[in-house]
Each structure stands twice: as C-alpha cells, then as structure tokens.
Amino acid sequence: MFFSSLYIHIPFCLKKCNYCSFYSINWNQGIEGLYLKSILKEIELTKEFLHLLETLYIGGGTPSCLSIESLEKLFVSLRENFKTKNDIEFSIEINPATVDKEKLKLMRSYGINRLSIGVQSLNDRELSFLGRIHSSDDALKTVDLAVNEGFDNISIDLIYGIPGQILKSWKTTLNKLVTRDIQHISCYELSIDRHTKIAKELDSGNFSLPPEEETVAMYEFATEFLESRGFKKYEISNFAQPGFQCRHNINYWSAVPYLGIGPSAHSFIDRKRFHNPSNLFSYAEHLIDGKPAWINDYTVDKTEELKERVFLGLRMKDGVILTNPCIIEMLGSPEYKNLISISGNRVRLTDKGMILSNEIFARVLLHIENCPACKQG
Ligand code: SF4
C-alpha cells in the first residue's frame, strides 16, 4: 500500500507580518469565494495521485481566517475525495485572534487532531515588532481554548533572535508556555528575507539583530530547558513530548511523496518536483481549463537527491544513513570533532553541530557538487 502526505495552502492573512516571505494576501470575502471554488476544483483534479493519506496538513497564510462555511466546504471535500489511514495525523495552523470556540469545534468534528498555533512570542513588544495581530494574552487564551475544546496534540511556533529581544524575555516566553498543556514546540531563529518590512527596518539602521552569542544562548537555553521539561529535540528546531513528533514534517524530511494543493503549494511525486503559481488569480485561471495548475516540474537527479538526503536527514536528531565513503571520511575528520557523531553508516549532528548546521551543510553540499563519485549517487 502506498501512503502519502497532502498539504493544503490557504493564502490569506488578516495583515502581513513584518518578517513574512510566504505567499499570502489580505483576506476579503470576495477572494475567499474565488479561492474556495479553485481549491475544490483542484482537489477533484488531483485526487487520483494520492491513494491513502497518512498525514494531512492545512497551512498558510492563516487557515483559521477562512469563514466557518468555507472551512466546512473544504473539510467535506477532503473527506469525500481522499481515503485516509485510521491513525491519520490531520493538522491545521491557526493564529490567535482568528479562531473561536465554534471554529475549533468544527475542526474537531471533521477529524483535525493536531493544532499548530502561531504564538511566536509572549512579549508584547516583540509581537508588535514582528507585526503580529495578536497580543501575548490572546495567544495564551487561544491555547487554553484549544485545550478546553479537547485538542491533545498542540504545537506552538516560536521565534527567537528578534531585534531587541534578550535572553531573559526568551526564557519568560518558554517558562510561561510550558505551564500549558502542549505537546510540541518549534523554535525558529528569525530569518531575514530581503523583501520583507523587517529587512528594510534593519537596512535603515533603526534596529539591529541581537548579537550572535545572545542568539546562540537562546537556542542552547531552549534545548536544555525544554528537554528538562520532557520535550525531546528531534530536529534542529523542533521539540516534542514522546509520541508527538510531527509526522507530516518527518515525511517531508524523509522524502516521502506529497502533494501540495493551493496557490504556491509544492509537490513531490514519482521523483518529480513541481508547484502551483504563487498568485491566486493565475492559479485560478489555470484551473478554469480543467487541468492542475502545476508549473516548473523537473525530475530530481541523483546529485540533488543525495544533497536533499544529507541536508534534510542531518537536520534530524537521528541523523541519516550514508553510503558515500567520501562524505563519511570528510565528516569524520578532526575538523568536525564534537560537531558530528558517526556510528557505522549513520551520521548525526551533535547539539553543538546543530548550532553550526548552516556552515556544515554548505560544506557538505559543496563537496557533493564537486565530487564525481557522489554525483553518481
Ligand atoms: S500570519 Fe503567518 S503567513 Fe500570515 S503574514 Fe504572518 S507569518 Fe506570514
């Protein structure tokens, strides 16, 4: 039997956050109608490509800003068109200040069993700098509402390394969160995309990022503190209580086939990668012709496959099995002592290696690019 993963992209947000480079547009009722019509059509057109879903993830944008009627139409269509495993992991991203009891009840009634809540910080100054539409109080109320509605697999997204943020405030955010009944925490370092409002603010010299030692201290504190509270780090940025690792993301990192539906969504099927246009209107136009809106498809060659396996596999705490003696020899050299652990063919980043992961990835990828043996796969 062929198991797989489905991602649905909902491109609406109530307001663009200052650091965000995902495809999202401001919500209004008129474009919600166009989106819904298009996505229901895309589901009809693509259902044959997935046989039995192991994970389903609705992300965005802000899925929870869709109206209750539209959410229900989407859930009905998913139920009618895709077969799912009995123990499917069915996640949806929600943002504080865009959900209420009624929406959460609807989500649960259609089998959503995992919520990913975009909290980002529990410091109001940091939230305002990021351009979030909610306060720390809204975020905690949303977590409590979700717990009260019976969700028992709740993930929280956090950002560290925010201009003006100090270690003390990061500690406060984590300390407040672990008092709640949550099972998974993602801690992402703020990354600056040059097309965002934050990049312009930084360029203007009005703000600066925290010093690197402070950001490293935040990451080290998160690892130590969360592990002491029962959350194991299973990927560079992800911590979970036992049994609550995100199966959808593990499938991505393990190159399991997945289909992405919705504007800008990416897919990987039969070694082919392709994606939908990152524009709701051109996405909708493609679908009018009765064909999936896929563009830029290409087959992943052996070099790229190896690069992805190393890059994605090394992100995970369990590491990756490699059969390329030259990579194992390279990473086994004294230069990588304390950064890499090798046992047989399994290669892992240590906690220290995770801090320097970007530099290590860059070097391994460069090696693969220039090594004739690696290029053969
Ligand atoms: S809510 Fe999420 S997707 Fe929307 S603008 Fe903010 S970060 Fe981007």
What does this structure look like?
The protein is α/β, with parallel strands linked by helices and 377 residues long. The protein has helices spanning 29-46, 68-81, 101-109, 124-130, 136-148, 167-177, 197-204, 212-228, 247-253, 280-288, 302-315, 325-331, 351-355, 357-370, 372-375, and strands spanning 3-10, 12-13, 25-26, 52-60, 84-94, 114-120, 154-160, 184-189, 232-235, 238-240, 258-261, 266-269, 272-275, 295-299, 320-321, 340-343, 346-349. The strands form four sheets. A nine-stranded mixed beta sheet has the order 9-10-8-7-6-5-4-1-11, sandwiched between helices. The chain starts with a strand and ends with a helix. β7 (154-160), α6 (167-177) and β8 form a beta-alpha-beta unit. α2 runs parallel beside α3. It is globular and about 60 Å long. It is 42% helix and 23% strand. It folds into two domains: 3-252, TIM Barrel; 302-375, Arc Repressor Mutant, subunit A (Orthogonal Bundle). The protein binds iron/sulfur cluster. Residues 13, 16-17, 20, 22, 24, 60-62, 95, 118 line the site of iron/sulfur cluster.
Topology, pairings included?
Elements: E1 3-10, E2 12-13, E3 25-26, H1 29-46, E4 52-60, H2 68-81, E5 84-94, H3 101-109, E6 114-120, H4 124-130, H5 136-148, E7 154-160, H6 167-177, E8 184-189, H7 197-204, H8 212-228, E9 232-235, E10 238-240, H9 247-253, E11 258-261, E12 266-269, E13 272-275, H10 280-288, E14 295-299, H11 302-315, E15 320-321, H12 325-331, E16 340-343, E17 346-349, H13 351-355, H14 357-370, H15 372-375
The structure holds iron/sulfur cluster.
Residues 13, 16-17, 20, 22, 24, 60-62, 95, 118 line the site of iron/sulfur cluster (SF4).
